[in-house]
Amino acid sequence: MWIFVNGRFVPKEKARVSVYDHGFLYGDGLFETLRAYSGTIFRLPQHLERLARSAQRLTLSLPPLFDLEALLYKTLERNRLRDAILRLTVTRGEGAVGLDPDLCGKPTLVILARRFKGYPSEFYEKGVSAAIVQVRRTPPAALDPAFKSISFLNNVQAKIEANRRGAFEGIFLSLDGYLAEGTVSNLFWVRKGKLKTPAPGVGLLEGVTRGLVLQLAKKSGVRTEEGRFRPSDLLKAEEAFLTNSGVELAPLTEVEGKAIGGGKPGPITRQLHQAFKEAVRQR
């Protein structure tokens, strides 16, 4: 496996960054996870634009977006991959110990790729489970979730709890008890024919797949609502699903040990996932 590190491709075994890198020392950096289908990186402009917005707010220098696009495709080509998951990471770079970003020279840029053709059909036929975790989502006033930050300890804590409870995913609540998002996913559910999802203001990362699902729902005539919801709203759902670049739309058939929609994927979930697959084919 070839990895792009600061201007060159190196074998996995030789990929290194400095122990003085502020990404390693302080979690000062951003990342994007992307998916390639048949050699085309899906929704690439949306991923790079989100990265650029965050980088600008953090005064973190990026190469031109067209250069990043070319590097991502070169990573696929170098590894002879067509169906893959890619991760692009940019950190503040190497510098003296200390929080001040001005201690660093140029940013560190790393691109990884791995073969990925999706989850088996049983994953979508049976669905997955989730636990509403006790650890709360970091509030926007502390760390804006609009940053896809490499500072992921909040999510790691929640994943540990979900694992201990035997759940596929952990669902965060905000500090004031509203549904937010999963550790690596956005959350949707259906109640009385309406598709519902937490609003960004609750404190969540607006996933690229999340945005596409909302567009597809509107196009398909499915009513949608973004708002502030309590866990009880999810537990009353007729169906539910999770979204991210890897799982696409994963049916959520059990929450807190309670079956959602009789424990089976629902019709709107299936409809929107089919629309998503069509969008992939038309990319």
Discrete helix count: 8
Proportion of helical residues = 25-40%
C-alpha end-to-end distance: 27 Å
User: Stretches where pLDDT falls below 50 for ≥5 residues?
Assistant: none
Radius of gyration, in angstroms, nearest whole number: 19 Å
In short:
The protein is of the alpha+beta class.
Question: Would you give an account of this structure?
Answer:
This protein is 30% helix and 28% strand. With 283 residues, it is of the alpha+beta class. Helix 6 crosses helix 8 (267-281). The model has no long low-confidence stretch (mean pLDDT 96).
Topology:
Layout: E1 2-5, E2 8-11, H1 22-26, E3 29-37, E4 40-41, H2 44-57, H3 65-78, E5 84-91, E6 108-115, H4 121-126, E7 128-132, H5 153-164, E8 169-173, E9 179-182, E10 186-191, E11 194-198, H6 208-220, E12 224-227, H7 231-235, E13 239-244, E14 248-255, E15 258-259, H8 267-281
Parallel strand pairs: 7-8, 7-14, 11-12
Antiparallel strand pairs: 1-2, 1-6, 3-4, 3-5, 5-6, 8-9, 10-11, 10-13, 13-14, 14-15
Index terms:
single chain, nine-stranded mixed β-sheet, 15 strands, six-stranded antiparallel β-sheet, globular, alpha+beta, 283 residues
